[in-house]
Design goal:
Strand content: 25-35%
CATH architecture: Alpha-Beta Complex
Largest sheet: 8 strands, mixed
Shape: globular
CATH topology: Spore Coat Polysaccharide Biosynthesis Protein SpsA, Chain A
CATH superfamily: Spore Coat Polysaccharide Biosynthesis Protein SpsA, Chain A
Helix content: 25-40%
Number of domains: 1
Order of helices and strands: EHEHEHEEHEEEEEHEEEHHEE
């Protein structure tokens, strides 16, 4: 039996140029062979697309909208459609500022799960504290009645590393089976991004979500040369 065919990609724009050299290097270092790469550049012009191509990465143009959320949704749904139409078994959503270990795909696939994420971290600004706290963008359900959740704790991240069931995550480093993409499109509501709504839809469809807490990825949040708040959402 052949290895599953995987499409790796993400929406991107010139805002992520700071991460492009390291991202290209990480993609080329992946040891899993049965995959294709496709980035969807939703910048207003073609300048960034040409820079991506110069790094040897496949890229197409996505739609430009004033809202970053609208650009991201349209681009991610292009990748969803490519996965379903071109015979891929999985879509590996790998954001352009997330750098996985070279064996990430084999290590995720070995669990035989339809929806599984690795771990990456982001800054969480806590009111009253001067410095932000680094938290994993993977969450477990605390209260089924209110749907409140919390990020993974240190025991889950470091002391008991391995496969565990979770309820939500970012879309930075997550492997999604085609059967799930048939059921769920990327979307957003209110003032949140599509990763939140993707996992809300997954929860309501009673689709289990897993994380391998032994798989840690580098997140280039501190390399970003601009504040995320400066981008029109």
């Amino acid at each position: 039996m052949s290895d599953p065919k995987i499409l790796i990609g993400c929406p991107t724009s010139f805002h992520k140029e700071y991460a492009l050299p390291e991202y290209a290097k990480a993609l080329k270092a992946l040891t899993y062979s049965n995959h294709d790469i496709l980035l969807v550049d939703n910048s207003k012009d073609d300048n960034y697309k040409k820079k991506i191509e110069a790094h040897g990465l496949p890229v197409i143009k996505g739609h430009w909208f004033e809202s970053a959320r609208d650009r991201i949704i349209a681009s991610r749904n292009i990748l969803r459609q490519k996965t379903l139409e071109k015979g891929y078994d999985y879509f590996f959503s790998l954001e352009q500022d997330v750098l996985p270990p070279p064996n990430i795909l084999q290590d995720l696939l070995k669990h035989n799960k339809q929806l599984i994420t690795a771990i990456y971290f982001a800054d969480n600004v806590i009111p009253g504290q001067t410095l932000p706290q680094l938290i994993p963008l993977v969450y477990v359900l605390e209260d089924p009645k209110t749907l409140s959740m919390r990020p993974l704790n240190n025991i889950e991240l470091w002391d008991k590393q391995g496969l565990m069931e979770v309820v939500s995550a970012g879309l930075g480093c997550v492997l999604i089976h085609k059967d799930i993409l048939k059921q769920v499109k990327f979307r957003y509501e209110k003032n949140t991004f599509d990763d939140r709504w993707f996992f809300i839809d997954i929860y309501h469809k009673k689709i289990p979500v897993f994380a391998d807490t032994s798989l840690k990825c580098k997140h280039l949040i501190h390399n970003r040369p601009y504040p995320w708040s400066s981008i029109q959402k």
